[in-house]
Amino acid sequence: MKPTSPEDRDLEKMSAEVSERYRAGADDEPPARLDAAVLAAARREVAQPRQRRNWQVPASIAAMLVLGVSLVLLVRDNEPPLPSLDRPAADEAKLAKPAPPQLAMKAQPKARADFDREDRPSRERSARPNREPVARDQVAAKQENAVQENAAAGASAPPVAAPAPAAATVAGTAKPVEQEQSRIAESSEVLPSKKAKAAADAAPESRVSAQALRKEDSAEGPVQPQDWLRKIDDLLRAGKDADAREQLLGFRKQFPNYPLSQRLQALLPLDQR
Amino acid sequence: MALVTANTVPDEQLMLRYRDGDAAAFDALYGRHRGGVFRYVLRQVGLRSAAEEVFQETWMNIISSRVRYRVEARFATFLYHVAHNCVIDHFRRKTPLHLISLDDDPDEAIQVAGPDRDQPERAVALRQSAAKLLNALALLPPEQREVFLLHEEGGLTLEEIAAVTGVGRETVKSRLRYALAKLREGIEHEADVA
User: Fold this and answer.
1) What are B30-78's pLDDT values in tens digits?
2) Which among A148, B98, B153, B155 has most CB atoms closer than 10 A?
3) CA distance A273 to A259
4) Residue B173's CB: how many other CB atoms inside 10 A?
5) How many CB atoms lie within 10 A of CB B119?
6) CB contact under 8 A, B52 and A28
7) For chain B, first and last CA: distance in Å?
8) Which residue of B lies nearest to A8 if distances are taken between CA atoms?
9) Helix/strand/coil for A206
């Protein structure tokens, strides 16, 4: 106690006087057994954390390892599959042969649908990641069969036929959906031959299987003959008689029994009227 | 009990070393403060058996709080704060307060005053005077007694006592003044009676 005022100094003087007398009788001490108990407890306390650390550190390392490995596995399962290296999308597009016009016109929306489906990781796909290469091979085989069938009829097929987009899956490097949509919008306003060209351009990026196309046809039906005839009429009015005849030949091939006006029948060979 | 205490090392440093796992540092720390804490508790609680219990509880609290220990004040302040709380807990558990008086219980008074030993004449006189003082101390109000004991046994300043007891410095000063006055009066009164 540091005396800072006369009052404090007075207090200090009183304290010193009483303190001397108090100290003379203040020799009480704790018993030895109490000292031993306290010191033993102090030593135990120091020793205990080391024992805890012995199992805590390895346990926490093991827990971190388990967590890390399971996280890595989870992330890997949820990642979208990479495109197969053994069959690039461009090669498959080259293999694709022209398909009937109604198939070509439907192929692009289907390809876009497949693109959307593939782009979104789903629980179903993540549950069967290893089946995809097998499915892709099967689709490619079916597509080759379809190409051979088309090739057989290819000599008489109309020039407006568009090449069918190839396989069911879309490559991981496919362009965004917006680009696909704008390209399709353009192609719907031009002639079927231009549509075919546009579809051919899209083919390297999106591969649609023949099987998928067949399903699409059965679901939505072929192109309406009235629309096709209207386009042929437009060609005639524009003075493009040769183009109109080619379109009409393709139309007749596709719809052999559809009734035609006399004006259009006159453009056809006699055996096809 | 023979405890090696390196007086050059501050209490706070010893406690930090104990916190970091040096058990020998605690031995030194305990050796320095065991007597003061024991007497502080004994004078407050009265009964030796109860004092031993509270004393042990105090040190157990110090031991268990070692991992959280940080130097925020003198170690003595921290130690007597813990002891103060243990004494309060003791009184909460065992009311009413048991005050010791020489008239009421001579055996207990002898325990509080310390062991009876042969002493030279001056020492005997001092001891007699001390016994009177202890008797007067036991009759003090608890607040005044505690302030006196914290000052004498713990060596705490007025500010430190204020921190331990949770009252203002001026209140502590007032209590200490009253305590000293009454103790002096008690000694003189005993002398007059004798």
Assistant:
1) 999 999 999 999 999 888 999 999 999 999 999 998 888 888 889 999 9
2) B153
3) 9
4) 18
5) 13
6) no
7) 37
8) B173
9) strand
What are the pLDDT tens digits along chain A (273 aa)?
Answer: 555 677 788 888 888 888 888 887 778 899 999 999 999 999 998 887 555 556 788 889 999 999 999 999 998 877 766 655 555 555 555 555 555 555 444 445 444 445 445 455 444 444 444 444 445 555 555 565 655 555 554 444 444 444 444 444 444 444 445 555 555 555 444 444 554 455 455 444 444 444 444 444 444 556 788 888 888 888 888 888 888 888 888 888 888 888 888 888 888 887 776
Contacts of B172 in chain A (CB under 8 A): none
Q: Which of A8, A17, A18, A35 would you mutate first to test chain B, the one with the most B CBs within 10 A?
A: A18
pTM comes to: 0.47
Q: Which of A8, A15, A37 sits opposite B180 (nearest CB)?
A: A15
Q: Which fold has domain B1-98?
A: Rna Polymerase Sigma Factor; Chain: A (1.10.1740)
- Give, as one character, the DSSP assignment of residue B48: H
For chain B, what are the domain ranges? Answer: 1-98, 99-194
Label residue A223 left, alpha or beta by phi (over 0 means left) and psi (-120 to 50 means alpha).
beta
CA torsion angle for A61, A66, A71, A77 (degrees, to 10)? 150
Phi-psi region of B21 (alpha: psi -120 to 50; beta: other; left: phi over 0): left
CA dist A45 and A48 (Å) reads 5
Cβ contact, residue pair A28, B39, below 8 Å: yes
Distance, in Å, from the CA atom of A72 to the CA atom of A82, rounded to the nearest integer, reads 17
Return the structure tokens found at A247.
Answer: 């379109």
Predicted complex ipTM exceeds 0.90: no
Is the Cβ of A178 closer than 8 Å to some Cβ of chain B?
no
- Cβ distance B39 to A46 less than 8 Å, yes or no, reads no
CA–CA min distance A116, chain B (Å): 59
3-state helix, strand, coil in chain A (%, to 5): 70, 0, 25
Q: What is the CATH number of domain B99-194?
A: 1.10.10.10
Q: How many beta carbons lie within 10 A of that of residue A128, not counting itself?
A: 9
Shortest CB distance from B127 goes to which of A17, A24, A35? A24
Alpha carbon distance A196, A190 (integer Å) = 10
Q: Check residue A168 and report its DSSP letter.
A: S
